[in-house]
Specification:
single chain; mainly beta
């Protein structure tokens, strides 16, 4: 059996994971002001998965989320979900009541093997941005509602190589994500 070299999209996705994971983990390292970690789940009509926030101080935090991409799944047009990884560097724009309520936004990156509106799976990678509202409910628990817009290219290999704009990333950005997290 001969070894087959992984396709370019898979190698690019692996490279992005290798570059983003240490970035997020370094944000939680104790240093100036220490660091807190929040683990939780995220749910939307766009996808569902796990999320982790690395809080450096009261004004910034970094988010990593690994989600099953549910575009075309819930309406029955497809049966196989995609997989995506997002990273955001969020800045708290305004907080009230000593940080109990906060509005945040930030730029980020995204990568994954996802389905676009053309119903074909393919590797997609590019920029992302989010804006959200976070409420700290009980001791250590928080609930967030956030909106994400992705501007990415998608590489499809359906009978021939095809590169196109990942249109589901911005056309479905009106659908919010709800995140429930526990801080440590």
């Amino acid at each position: 059996m001969m070894y087959r070299k992984p396709d370019l999209p898979l190698r690019l996705w692996a490279l992005l994971v290798v570059l983003l994971l240490p970035q997020g983990l370094s944000a939680a390292s104790p240093g100036k002001g220490g660091g807190k970690v929040s683990l939780g789940v995220t749910q939307s009509l766009r996808g569902a998965g796990l999320s982790v926030d690395f809080v450096r101080d009261a004004t910034t935090f970094r988010s990593l989320a690994l989600t099953a991409d549910l575009i075309d799944i819930l309406d029955g047009q497809a049966s196989t979900p995609g997989l995506r990884l997002t990273y955001h560097h969020n800045i708290v724009l305004k907080d009230w009541n000593e940080g109990k309520y906060a509005v945040y936004a930030g730029p980020g990156l995204r990568a994954g093997y996802v389905r676009d509106l053309s119903h074909h799976l393919g590797f997609a990678g590019g920029m992302s941005g989010d804006v959200g509202l976070r409420v700290h409910c009980l001791k250590g628990f928080s609930v967030s509602v956030e909106w994400q817009a992705d501007f990415a290219l998608q590489f499809k290999d359906r009978y021939r190589q095809d590169i196109s704009l990942y249109s589901a990333g911005y056309s479905h950005s009106y659908l919010p994500y709800v995140r429930i997290q526990l801080s440590f």
